[in-house]
Amino acid sequence: MDPPSDAAVIGRSLDEPEAFGLVYDRHAATVLRFLGRRVGAEAAEGLLGELFRIAFERRKTFDAARVSALPWLYGIGSNLLLKHRRAEARRLRASARMAAADHAADRRTSAAAIDAHVLFPRVADAIDSLPDSEREALLLFAWEELPYGSVAEALKLPIGTVRSRLSRARAHLRELLEPNGKGRERSR
Amino acid sequence: MKPVDLAKKLRREAAFEPAVLDRGKAALMATIRQEVQPMRRPTIIPRLPYENVGAALSFLERAFGFREVAAARGVRADGAIDYTMVEFGDGMIGLGAQGAHGAFSPMRAGTASQYITVHVDDIDAHHQRALASGAEIVSRLHDHLRDYRVYEALDLEGHRWRFLQWLRETPQSERR
Question: Which of A49, A105, B32, B53 has a Cα at 20 to 30 A from B79?
Answer without folding.
Answer: B32
